[in-house]
């Protein structure tokens, strides 16, 4: 090349005053140091400490104290295990625990099954299914409040369209108050929840399916394995980690957030849809009994951790 | 054999279409029905004979909602809270995701796991102390306070999702940029973030939608019209007995409209990001 | 342009040391090839020279400067990556000019430099495209353009040709050689292709397990490999290793291998110390020729592979397979006996214990 190095370097502009005081220059220098990665993490870590770790620890210690906003006369003394002892004899706690088990098990089962079917169908990449995929994924992005109201409207005892359809096809004698009947309230709520969240499984399982090499299926075809055995022998085993991750995330969501039930039934009628998270929230929000609400949450957290641990263990064992 | 296989393939194809069309119908039917309800006259909503396709159309529910119930204020509050949440996540989360994606340092895996595990903490366990703390520092019942509370579950999500997008940009690009004369900071802003900009947009939209939709924290941490968000406001419209279905439907449709539009826009990138973050974790 | 010297460089990842005490010298304008099997630490060494990774010890000196604590951007080096690492959001023009842009070279001289580099590499017509719209060979050229435009003191290449198809690779190899001849800038070039190493390098460093096995010019590496690893790594088909015992017969050194006896003349002086001991003789396939002689091996033809210009023959000599490169006229049949004579001046002896050349 004919150009000489000096000609280019000489035309470099010298540093201006602004360059010298420019803060970006100092941060740039900082970025070449060994602790740059920690500096990048610092703001988010501090924030998470502040809004997650600290409140959680605070909540944990609250569970050992008296703390009722509407009863300042009781003070905020340490009460050791009082709240936990009360739980043992608290009927509502035990009902909530049972309801939580029903709610989570039923919802995850339905969501996983429907989600898997949808993912398998979408993964065939048939023409036109891209648009259907958008529709199918949409419910997951809708607010709980609106999802709840849409279904409450459709299941309304006086003007619900589902009631009308069921009566018209003869499955139902007359309009039914689904959420007001203790025998159907939980089932109806689970349907709404499943509608809202099955796309979550579709989303994750679809991604997992895309990661399975198609050669495996070709090989299985040549070996003469049918669709069912391919599903059982290739697809599900290959999806194991995705399934485990999806189930755990969904269970966490279902156990921790009372939103949908709060909107649909507030735990009623009676206690038929009372779950732990809802009970804890109402204890805090309605009774302002923060100590007891904290204790309920701690128990919830411990149960979740135990579940996650056992579940991960089991799915690892199956893998070997 | 070949015939049998192609026939079973055909059966599966038809089955797939049936399943997908049925599910798509189930998924959008409630939305369509809510929309239809929102444009029906009041007497067509509450009627002996169900009216499926409205013959008379009205926008009075929308007008009433807008004029009477302070809905515009709720929407503005939600917008502020959502924007602040997204802003905080972008400012602190982008660099954190970058750090996790680019550097292998001691404690990285544990720290990333910690960012994941905080999602296991029950919302109620955090809400109560947040309520107490926010009250102490005067952030209770404010949009900023609510947005900060939202980062408790949205920031970890943001970091995980965005990390997946950053991972997709080869590390060598940064090496090349650093040799070409940038610092690590420059390489991050000039090279890596521009490459991941679609992912960043999708992640921000996802977090934005989640903040826009949130109900529980808002219910607990806002108490007045000044900072209340629309989900709480909409829920408060539900009276004890007579439900204002037309207005509720109108409110629901207005509120999910931006969600649907945004979702349609960034759907593909967002789906990729969610799955990248979740599957790798 | 500058010299490069590396003094006692070490690198550990956690508790694993992947580079042990590396010493290298490269003269101004030289072309150093780092050659070695996958995972031996070539890229790591290159990253340390570039400053992308801190070393765990030792010095890197470019020209007169010890650059240990100098940022990559200030080392005035350029690097071409195996994946090319072109910035996907920028046009080819901006890709090539990015280094100058960061050094605040003004627009007109930048454009000049980009134009010259593009002309040199024949990519002027591609300047306004994005990297995504280029073929593999074109990307490779852009990556080179980005490196040469800055007139660096030192070029670093990390397996720049390994993503190209065979034909293009040969073309680009010639191109790189031409560029180096023209620019005269010092180069450190990583590859595990020995042909690249032999054709391009003025110096070749063969590495294994984070240790430099031999640093020499290509000719020496080929003809006098420092040990059996280097000998086996260089050359295709690989060198034959014949086990045997060294003996003194009538004042001449001979090698006994089973029934066979090879008369050794012109072998290294140190060999006499090994009389009566086991040694390994390294014989390149092309040093065989058909016919008997004082040093000859007789065996049964096992496989015959005509390659066009040559015929490769695998001979079973008392159970040990020996490959020989013979003229294309030779067409022995498998199963036939055959005698090959060896040019012992090109033969190397190795100590079977240490593997080092005698
Ligand atoms: N960031 C890292 N952390 C831990 N070990 C690493 C890291 N980078 C490289 N290594 C290890 O260092 C050794 C040398 O790696 P390097 O990439 O330098 O090999 P290489 O000679 O370039 O191989 P290749 O020819 O395959 O590119 C390898 O064993 C590798 O596993
Ligand atoms: Mg390498």
Automatic annotation (TrEMBL), chain A:
Belongs to the binding-protein-dependent transport system permease family. PROSITE patterns: ABC_TM1. This is Sugar ABC transporter permease. It is found in: Cell membrane. It comes from the Bacteria. The chain crosses the membrane at residues 35-57, 101-122, 131-152, 185-209, 230-252, 290-312. Residues 97-311 form the ABC transmembrane type-1 domain. InterPro entries: ABC_transporter_permease (IPR051393), MetI-like (IPR000515), MetI-like_sf (IPR035906). Keywords: Cell membrane, Membrane, Transmembrane, Transmembrane helix, Transport. The keyword RNA-binding does not apply. It holds the Pfam family BPD_transp_1. It is a multi-pass membrane protein.
From TrEMBL, chain B:
It is a multi-pass membrane protein. Residues 75-266 form the ABC transmembrane type-1 domain. Its main location: membrane. It is found in: Cell membrane. Keywords: Cell membrane, Membrane, Transmembrane, Transmembrane helix, Transport. Pfam families: BPD_transp_1. The chain crosses the membrane at residues 12-36, 74-100, 112-132, 144-166, 187-212, 245-266. It comes from the Bacteria. Belongs to the binding-protein-dependent transport system permease family. This is Carbohydrate ABC transporter permease. It comes from Devosia algicola.
From TrEMBL, chain C:
It holds the Pfam family OB_MalK. Transmembrane segments: none annotated. PROSITE patterns: ABC_TRANSPORTER_1, ABC_TRANSPORTER_2. Belongs to the ABC transporter superfamily. InterPro entries: AAA+_ATPase (IPR003593), ABC_transporter-like_ATP-bd (IPR003439), ABC_transporter-like_CS (IPR017871), ABC_transpr_MalK-like (IPR015855), ABC_transpr_MalK/UgpC-like (IPR047641), Mo/tungstate-bd_C_term_dom (IPR008995), NA-bd_OB-fold (IPR012340), OB_MalK-like (IPR040582). Residues 4-234 form the ABC transporter domain. GO terms for molecular function: ATP binding. It comes from the Bacteria. PANTHER family: ABC TRANSPORTER ATP-BINDING PROTEIN, MALTODEXTRIN IMPORT ATP-BINDING PROTEIN MSMX. Keywords: ATP-binding, Nucleotide-binding, Transport. This is Sn-glycerol-3-phosphate ABC transporter ATP-binding protein UgpC. It comes from Devosia algicola.
């Amino acid at each position: 090349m004919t150009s000489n190095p000096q000609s280019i370097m000489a035309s470099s502009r010298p540093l201006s005053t602004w360059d010298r005081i420019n803060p970006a220059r100092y941060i740039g220098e900082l970025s070449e140091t060994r602790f740059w990665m920690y500096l990048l993490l610092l703001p988010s870590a501090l924030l998470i400490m502040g809004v997650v770790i600290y409140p959680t620890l605070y909540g944990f210690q609250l569970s050992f104290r008296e703390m009722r906003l509407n009863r300042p006369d009781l003070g905020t003394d340490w009460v050791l295990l009082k709240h936990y002892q009360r739980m043992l004899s608290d009927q509502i706690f035990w009902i909530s625990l049972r309801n939580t088990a029903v709610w989570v098990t039923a919802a995850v089962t339905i969501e996983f099954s429907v989600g898997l079917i949808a993912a398998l169908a979408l993964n065939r990449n048939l023409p036109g299914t891209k648009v259907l995929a958008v529709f199918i994924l949409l419910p997951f992005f809708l607010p709980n409040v609106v999802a709840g109201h849409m279904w409450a409207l459709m299941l309304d005892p006086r003007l619900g369209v589902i009631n009308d359809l069921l009566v018209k096809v003869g499955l139902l004698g007359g309009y039914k108050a689904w959420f007001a009947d203790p025998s159907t309230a939980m089932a109806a709520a689970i349907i709404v929840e499943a509608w809202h969240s099955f796309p979550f499984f579709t989303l994750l399982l679809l991604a997992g399916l895309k990661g399975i090499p198609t050669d495996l299926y070709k090989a299985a075809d040549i070996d003469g394995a049918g669709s069912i055995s391919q599903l059982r022998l290739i697809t599900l085993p290959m999806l194991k980690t995705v399934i485990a991750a999806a189930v755990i995330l969904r269970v966490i969501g279902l156990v921790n957030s009372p939103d949908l039930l709060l909107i649909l039934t507030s735990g009623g009628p009676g206690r038929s849809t009372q779950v732990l998270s809802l009970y804890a929230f109402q204890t805090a929000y309605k009774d302002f009994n923060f100590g007891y609400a904290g204790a309920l949450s701690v128990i919830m957290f411990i149960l979740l951790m135990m579940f996650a641990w056992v579940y991960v263990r089991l799915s690892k064992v199956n893998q070997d | 054999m070949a015939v049998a296989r192609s026939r079973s393939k055909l059966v599966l194809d038809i089955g797939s279409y049936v399943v997908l069309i049925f599910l798509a119908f189930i998924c959008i039917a409630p939305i369509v029905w809510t929309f239809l309800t929102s444009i029906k006259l009041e007497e067509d909503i509450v009627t002996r004979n169900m009216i499926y396709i409205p013959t008379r159309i009205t926008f009075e529910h929308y007008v009433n909602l807008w004029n009477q119930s302070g809905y515009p204020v709720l929407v503005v509050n939600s917008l502020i809270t959502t924007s602040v949440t997204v802003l905080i996540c972008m400012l602190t989360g982008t660099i954190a995701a970058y750090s996790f994606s680019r550097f292998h340092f001691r404690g990285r895996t544990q720290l990333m796991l910690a960012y994941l595990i905080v999602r296991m903490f029950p919302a109620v366990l955090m809400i109560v102390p947040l309520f107490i703390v926010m009250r102490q520092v005067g952030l209770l019942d404010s949009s900023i306070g609510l947005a900060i509370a939202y980062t408790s579950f949205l920031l970890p999500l943001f970091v995980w999702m965005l990390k997946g997008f950053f991972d997709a940009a080869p590390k060598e690009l940064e090496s090349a940029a650093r040799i070409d004369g940038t610092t690590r900071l420059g390489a991050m802003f000039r090279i890596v973030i521009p490459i991941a900009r679609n992912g960043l947009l999708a992640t921000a939209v996802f977090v934005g939608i989640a903040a826009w939709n949130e109900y529980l924290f808002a219910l607990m941490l806002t108490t007045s019209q000044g900072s209340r968000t629309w989900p709480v406001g909409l829920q408060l419209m539900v009276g004890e007995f007579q439900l204002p279905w037309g207005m509720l439907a109108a409110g629901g449709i207005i509120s999910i409209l931006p969600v649907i539009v945004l979702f349609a826009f960034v759907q593909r990138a967002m789906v990729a990001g969610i799955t990248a973050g979740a599957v790798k974790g | 342009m500058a010299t490069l010297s590396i003094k006692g460089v070490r690198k550990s990842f956690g508790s694993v040391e992947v580079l042990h005490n590396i010493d290298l010298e490269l003269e101004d304008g030289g072309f150093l090839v780092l050659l070695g099997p996958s995972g031996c630490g070539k890229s790591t060494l290159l990253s340390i020279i570039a400053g992308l990774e801190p070393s765990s010890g030792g010095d890197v000196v470019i020209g007169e400067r010890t650059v240990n604590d100098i940022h990559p951007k200030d080392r005035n080096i350029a690097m071409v990556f195996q994946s090319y690492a072109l910035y996907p959001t920028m046009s080819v023009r901006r890709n090539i000019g990015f280094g100058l842009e960061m050094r605040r070279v003004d627009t007109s001289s930048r454009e000049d430099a980009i134009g010259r580099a593009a002309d040199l590499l024949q990519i002027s017509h591609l300047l306004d495209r994005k990297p995504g719209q280029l073929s593999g060979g074109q990307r490779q050229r852009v990556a080179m353009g980005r490196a040469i435009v800055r007139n660096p003191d030192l070029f670093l290449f990390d397996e720049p040709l390994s993503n190209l198809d065979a034909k293009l690779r040969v073309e680009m190899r010639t191109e790189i050689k031409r560029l180096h001849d023209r620019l005269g800038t010092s180069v450190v070039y990583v590859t595990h292709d020995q042909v690249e190493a032999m054709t391009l390098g003025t110096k070749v460093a063969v590495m294994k397990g984070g240790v430099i096995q031999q640093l020499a010019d290509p000719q020496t590496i080929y003809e006098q490999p420092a040990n059996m690893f280097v000998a086996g790594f260089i050359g295709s088909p690989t060198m034959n290793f014949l086990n045997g015992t060294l003996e003194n017969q009538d004042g001449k050194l001979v090698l006994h291998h089973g029934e066979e006896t090879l008369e050794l003349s012109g072998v290294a002086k140190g060999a006499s110390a090994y009389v009566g001991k086991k040694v390994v003789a390294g014989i390149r396939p092309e040093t065989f020729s058909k016919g008997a002689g004082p040093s000859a091996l007789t065996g049964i033809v096992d496989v015959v592979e005509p390659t066009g210009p040559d015929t490769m023959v695998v001979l079973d000599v008392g159970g040990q397979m020996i490959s020989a490169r013979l003229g294309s006229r030779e067409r022995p049949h498998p199963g036939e006996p055959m005698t090959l004579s060896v040019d012992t001046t090109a033969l190397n002896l190795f100590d079977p214990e240490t593997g080092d050349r005698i």
